[in-house]
Amino acid sequence: IFETTVTQVGQAFGVSRCILFSYIKKPTRRLPVVAEYAEPKYMPVTGMIVPIKKAMPWMQVMDREQAVAVANVYANPLFQDLEPLFQEIELKSLLMIRTSYQDKPNGLLVLHQCDRFRQWSSHDIRVVESIAAQVGIALAQASLLETEKRQHKLLDQQNTQLRQEIYERKQAEEHLQLFFAQSLDGFFFMMLDEPVQWDETVDKAQVLDYVFAHQRFTKVNSAILEQYGAQREQFLGLTPNDLFVHNRTYGKSLWQQLFDAGRLHVETDGRKLDQSPIWIEGDYICLYDALGRI
Q: What sign for the dihedral angle of Cα 156, 157, 158, 161?
């Protein structure tokens, strides 16, 4: 669309070049070329790099609504630093107007006359200002479309990543479930009703009282049920208070060691559900939330 626009405008005005720039304000002001029409005998300017200090005349146009018509670029002190560039591209006269959308500049439309010095008529200026208004809308729509494309691409990437993570999580859960079910060692998970903070800012005795009343068995395998002589429905939901009826002080000392270290390998004096003694050698690991709470 923009290539067609600059070609038609360039041919309609009989100019040597017609160039459309996009105006990018952040992180630094710059004017990359979007599309260019150039007569065959004149070199295109697309790809040429103009230092930002020398590009200030173009930047000044971005701050005004009216077109800037220059009949002789060498007689205008504003372009003094650009004379070597103008000689290289054989520029003699130019007409430039910013494009905008909702009063915000978003581009620059520039016409070059290279074969002669040209006095731009009021009609030329009115027409190019009218064209610039339409081009500004088109640039805004193109920018919006590009933003939507990037957002869709990012969303697709995120969805793909999410699907992969879900797949990997399911695979891990299946492997864990298989290991959990077939292991000859007893395995279990216990969960608290609410996470607890465990550091020097809390009353650890009170925290342990809460834990012993609100930490429950949520998942167990057959091996641990056999060790404790229990049915699954009997065991799920039990708390440390239930397991250490015989000696809760001893049980809390074990929990404190676990919470202090984060993991614990220990042999404990426990009781089956019928209160017969059982010695258990076990490894215990704390799980933490994003805030570091157990």
A: positive
